[in-house]
Each structure stands twice: as C-alpha cells, then as structure tokens.
Amino acid sequence: MKNIQTVIGGAIAGIFVMSVWGEFAESYGIVGGWIAALIIIGTMWFLNHHIGILHNPEEGAWVDMALAIGVCGTLRPVFSAGSITPLIDSMPTLIVVILGGLAGGIMAAMIQKGVDKEKESKRA
C-alpha cells in the first residue's frame, strides 16, 4: 500500500506542476511562478511529507517529489503527441541529468566518508 501511496502522491505533484505552474507564470510573470511554487510545492510537500503520502524508508535511497515531477514532465509530451519522438528528443538532456546525479551521489558519498572518518578520529 505504501508504494501505491507514493506513486499517487508523486503523480499528483507532477500533474499539478506540469498543468498549473506554467499557467501561473504565463499569466503573472515571475511573481506567478513564485506564487505557483509556494502554492503547489508547499501544498504537495505538506501532503507528501508531513501527512506522509510519500514513503521514504530510512534504509533506502531518499527520493523526493522531484523525481515524480521530472518523470511527469518527460512523459507528458509523449502522451500528448501520441509518439515517443519527444522522449527521444529529450535523451541528451536526460543523459546529462543522470550523469550529474551520479556525480552528485559520488561526491556526497565521498564527503560523508570524510565526515565519518573525521568523527571517528576525534573519538579516538
């Protein structure tokens, strides 16, 4: 049930961001983008994290609403066009984003290892 809740919470966040945020920004400019961020992300964060719709187990990798929003943003044009051409066109961007995520994860692990080593040496 927790996995279904996570999919639903992420899907709702993705749908709202992809459907509403652009309209706010087009209608009200930069201020509209900020208002949309506060309303959409604030509300969805409250529901997904404070209420607990999204399930992030402590022993697993922490995945947030951004993944669901990214998947929704990538696949929405595919469903709208009825073709995988938009997905193929987005591959260079997706590859760079994945490489950036890998680099960030490696750096975070290296930093954490250094912090743990420093704590360990202070205890000794």
- Please mark out the parts with pLDDT under 50 across 5 or more consecutive residues, or reply none: none
Strand content: under 5%
What general outline do the C-alpha atoms trace? globular
Distance between the termini: 45 Å
Notes on the structure:
The protein is mainly α and 124 residues long. The chain has helices spanning 2-51, 65-81, 85-89, 91-123. Helix 1 (2-51) crosses helix 2 (65-81). The radius of gyration is 18 Å and the shape is globular. The protein starts with a helix and ends with a helix.
Short description:
This protein has 124 residues and is an all-alpha fold. It has helices at 2-51, 65-81, 85-89, 91-123.
Write the layout of secondary structure elements.
Elements: H1 2-51, H2 65-81, H3 85-89, H4 91-123
Helix pairs in contact: 1-2
Tags for this entry?
124 residues, globular, mainly alpha
